Amino acid sequence: MTTQDAPTYMELELRSQPKVWTRAITEATARRAEEPIAAKGERVAVFGCGTSWFMAQSWAAAREQAGQGLTDAFAASESDLVARADQYDRVVAICRSGTTTEVLEVLGNLKGLVPTVAIVGDLDTPIVNVADRIIGLPYADEKSVVQTRFATTALATLLTDSGIDLGSAVEDAEAAVDAATPKAIVDAEQFTFLGRGWTYGLANEAALKMREAVQGWTESYPAKEYRHGPISIAGPNRVTWMIGDGPEALRGEVEATGATYLDNDVHPLAELARVHKVTLDRALARGLNPDEPRHLTRSIILDGEDA
Q: What DSSP string runs through 189-247?
């Protein structure tokens, strides 16, 4: 579904994800054999802002689940990493623009305290001067304000670095980014995204995409936590969307409210790409430009008073 004569940047970028992931996986596999971003057993902190924070959450949970070592995720704007630097062997930053004020401040303050790595889309930015090591993903950088492929490519890079096989992710995403969105989903009043383990970060990111591009009422929760109150908003013309494997009984509990329950049997990273496509279709159906969401810019750069 496209209501414009020419595709938006968001559409072009989200559709490119399978190809871009393939390159990232290949590069990360080779890098891991020589100098991994985070070696097995290292205590790692990872941080970012907005979308990058949610990718940090996903990698942290996945790396620990894979037995690679303690991994903590932080929002750059609220981290106390300088005070806790001695607790980690390495700190990883995720930043598409390379100019986000809070990210640069944290990296600058960590200089000399702990080795730092920055995963960045734009290499011609200040971040290259403050991080000890740069992992550049310029081929995944974007023109749309709403992030899609940089975030998922950064996560694919980090998962591969942790020895996690992405399996069917690329193949599943090839179908997801072209899938038609049913009218009932385009017109739905409210969305709640759920995840478990490493996919909870993906659920948070899915909800953020829908809020940014569609200006819609969207929430996210750990799947089992959903029963403890949030399910009360489920009802007709509302959607509960599970990313990854969910509790078996949850479908029946949600459908009993009259809400639609989505739980597709695909790789969770590909399911996030499907959310990107649904978000695009819902934005265009409402006459919104997802490349220029309300009140947002590509990078948050604060002056001295706000920083």
A: SEEEEEE-TTHHHHHHHHHHHHHHHH--EEEEEEGGGGGTTGGGG--TTEEEEE-S---
Render pLDDT for 22-69 as a digit per residue (tens, 0 to 9). 999 999 999 999 999 999 999 999 999 999 999 999 999 999 999 999
Cα–Cα distance between 184 and 125 in angstroms, integer? 43
Q: Which residues of 36-61 are buried (b: 16+ CB within 10 A; e: fewer)?
A: bbbeeebebbbbbbbbbbbbbbbbbb
Q: What are phi and psi of 62, to 5 degrees?
A: -70, -40
Kindly report the number of other CB atoms within 10 A of residue 67's CB atom: 10
- Residue 155 in contact with residue 58, Cβ under 8 Å? yes
Q: Are 200 and 184 in contact (CB under 8 A)?
A: no
Cα 66–chain centre separation: 19
Tokens 């390495």 correspond to 90
Q: How far is CA 174 from the centre of its chain?
A: 18
Closest by alpha carbon to 178, among 22, 9, 18?
A: 18
